[in-house]
Every structure is written in structure tokens, then in C-alpha cells.
Amino acid sequence: MHIKGRSLSLLIPEEKIKERVKELAKEIEKDLGENFVVVSLLKGSFVFTADLIREFSVPVKVDFMWVSSYGSSQESSGSVRILQDLSMDIKDQKVLLVDDILDTGYTLKKVVEFLREKEPSVLKVCVLLDKKERRKVELKADYVGFEVPDKFLVGYGLDWDEEGRNLRGIYAVD
Ligand code: 5GP
Ligand code: MG
């Protein structure tokens, strides 16, 4: 597999993701019960979110936010901007914030602070991937799919300059 002329190595195959997403959904449902709001960060987490919500056996609502962080295409920076806010009111609602990958932590820290001001009754954070060793700010996700090494990853929603989101597994760019 190639992208932009660089070869890709499979890190997490589709089947393993599927299995883990099921486990995460079970765990989340056990903690949150029913009628929680899934807040998904565009664009990277749309594939993960689509699979995760279909593993819930309880009613949930889904909303999206769009955030961007200044920096190079491969590294986020301290300044995170909210480009598109939620469409629904989450005051007194149980909220599950979903992102593709936790890297430095800048993005999720900012979004968590932003959402807390909206006074949800519960706010939990779920990420598919966690590059733990790269953390710059303190932020711990409540639910983590996989801990991953410090490599640039694509696939399953994650892009490299908008390419690679459609890959079924998660790949490291060599
Ligand atoms: P953080 O703010 O935690 O440094 O970065 C989180 C965001 O950076 C993720 O939502 C994702 O958009 C992007 N990111 C971090 N690492 C990777 C990676 O390995 N691959 C891709 N495609 N995006 C990444
Ligand atoms: Mg992202």
C-alpha cells in the first residue's frame, strides 16, 4: 500500500479494530447508560464514530464539532480553534467526546474545556488511538482503543493531507 509515493505498514488490521470497537462500546454503555450524546470531532473521527455508535444497543444522539490546530500537517500546536460548534444543547446531558487520536493532547484539552462550559452532567473522553509518549499537556482519555507508537498513522478516518481516510486498517507511514 502506498500514499503520496510513500509505503505504508499495516499496524492495526480491520478485524482487530472491529473487535476493540465492540469492547469499547460495551464498556461505555455500562458506564453511561442510555441517552447520552456522542460528540465527534471532524474530520478524523467520523469513521470510528460511525462504527462505535452502531455497537450501542441504547438510544444515543450524535453531534459533530470541527476544530483545527495550527501547525504542520503532521503535528498539532498549542493553538486550537473551534471552527464549528455543536448544533445541540448539551446542558445537563451525558456527553461522550470522541476523537481519532490523542497525541500532544492540545486539541482534546481545549475541546474538553470548551464543552465543560456548556455544563454537561457527565463528560467522558474516548479515543481510538493514544500516542502516550507524545503528550505535552495533561489529559487522560476515559476510553482508549489502542496505545500506539510515535509514528505518523493513516487510515480508518485518519488522513495525510486528506488522503488515506478510506483505508480499512490503520497504517504507519514509513
Ligand atoms: P493533539 O492535539 O493531541 O496533538 O493532536 C490530535 C490531532 O492531531 C488528532 O485529532 C489528529 O487530527 C492529529 N494527529 C495526531 N497524530 C496523528 C497521526 O499519527 N496521524 C494523523 N493522521 N493525524 C494525527
Ligand atoms: Mg483530528
Automatic annotation (TrEMBL):
Pfam families: Pribosyltran
InterPro entries: HGPRT (IPR050408), Hxn_phspho_trans (IPR005904), PRTase-like (IPR029057), PRTase_dom (IPR000836)
Location, primary (coarse class): cytoplasm
Keyword hit for Heme: no
Gene Ontology cellular-component terms listed: cytosol
Top-rank taxon, per record: Bacteria
Cofactor(s) of this protein: Mg(2+)
GO biological process: GMP salvage; guanine salvage; hypoxanthine metabolic process; IMP salvage; purine ribonucleoside salvage
Metabolic or biological pathway: Purine metabolism; IMP biosynthesis via salvage pathway; IMP from hypoxanthine: step 1/1
Keyword Nucleotide-binding: yes
Catalysed conversion reaction: IMP + diphosphate = hypoxanthine + 5-phospho-alpha-D-ribose 1-diphosphate; GMP + diphosphate = guanine + 5-phospho-alpha-D-ribose 1-diphosphate
Location(s) in or outside the cell: Cytoplasm
Gene3D superfamilies from the UniProt entry: 3.40.50.2020
Top enzyme class: transferase
E.C. number: 2.4.2.8
Ranges for domain Phosphoribosyltransferase: 16-159
Keywords: Cytoplasm, Glycosyltransferase, Magnesium, Metal-binding, Nucleotide-binding, Purine salvage, Transferase
GO molecular function: guanine phosphoribosyltransferase activity; hypoxanthine phosphoribosyltransferase activity; magnesium ion binding; nucleotide binding
NCBIfam families: HGPRTase
Family of this protein: Belongs to the purine/pyrimidine phosphoribosyltransferase family.
Protein name as annotated: Hypoxanthine phosphoribosyltransferase
Source organism: Thermocrinis ruber
